[in-house]
Prior knowledge:
The protein is of the alpha/beta class and 452 residues long. The protein is 52% helix and 12% strand. The strands form 4 sheets. It has a 4-stranded parallel beta sheet with strand order 2-1-3-4, sandwiched between helices. A two-stranded antiparallel ribbon has the order 5-6. It is a multi-pass membrane protein.
Amino acid sequence: MSTVKPGRYSVYLRPISYFIDLSIINGLALLCFFKSVDPVSFVFLISIAWVVISLYSNFYAVFRYTKEVLIISLILRQMALFTLVVFAFSGLYYKINILPETIFKYVGSVFLLISIFKFALYYLLQRYRVSFGGNFRITAILGKNKQTQALEEFFTENPEYGYSHTKTFSFKNITDEEIEACFRFIKEEKVDEIYCSLSQLTNSQLNKVVDFADNNLKLVKFLPDNKDVYSKKLKYEYYDYIPILSLRNIPLEDSVNQFVKRAFDIVFSSLVIVFFLSWLTPLIAILIKLESKGPVFFKQSRNGFNYKEFECYKFRSMMPNKNAHLHQATRGDQRVTRVGKFIRKTSIDELPQFYNVLFGDMSVVGPRPHMVSHTNMYAKKIDKFMVRHFVKPGITGLAQISGYRGEVETDKDIIGRVKYDIFYIENWSLLLDFKIILKTLINTIRGEEKAY
């Protein structure tokens, strides 16, 4: 029998978090601009807006197994949406004349304090679980194989996550009597969460486990160790009362995420165009013209969002040739000019694509677009290649910072690129975009082997 009680106060953590966050929001507002607004209307509207936004963005969906990077992503998303709400309030009551810098200072202070509180609570709970054995959940695993053993090791080696593992049941030819024995053990040991191996139990036995868990207030979870489809990031929806599983969840299909990414693309590309391309373009144009005849810009048809073709722009780095639309540049390619070698090595040749971003054909970050001829070829021979076209193509991408930039020398290169592109599509976040942009800048400064 377990001697330490888990404690059932976790249910109060979210209401406490709401109360503290709303206190920070309204308390700082009192210091910043309550003299300019009606306190009652501000508190009411902003508090309601905060709660609605947080429910929509799952801001308080932080669990014991949640990683720090996801918490940062939630904070950034909530901050962006809340900033828009405060500006909307200022526009609604335009007579109060709140300056934009005051709003930014207010929002920045709010999220600094909320972030400190959120991470302090996260780490304090971890420390509490390790040091005092509290705030934990008792677990049992039904079925023994490599996956369940790995889960058991996770529970044992990571006490900060707050799991106390009791037993892993090993089955060969499992009988109903053995299932009933498991149920008795689970009730006696006051197990909170039951983890089932899908490969070890039949459908009827799984149904028995689910019925037992429902009738005894136990949480049941499944390890997808026998069906590949179960290991994917499935999206669960209802059409009326009919449950539907979507094989692929794409965050950028969400209208709010689309707005956030498009707003970022417009701002970022505009800054690059104004502060870099405005003066760099004439200099590069002169260098290109001095070395060879032909246009300054090179445009090429590529496939983008939903397989739609668009004209992708670059600074011309080759001598004009008929094969430019058919063959990639290779190591030591004689078509590349001396200026072209420099601008390709430094990735300056890619900068005109920020016009593509501004026009809406591309994004700053996304799967790199291929030539139409190559897209048609890879679509026929590379499994899941077309998944890349569920989102807009990007100037840089996760595949490019992971070693799959430039020339596709073997099928292994394009398979690896597709793998990273699909991961990006299924796991997009604004924080991930920031990380990819930062890594791209670092790689550009260091220089890359395949930048030729």
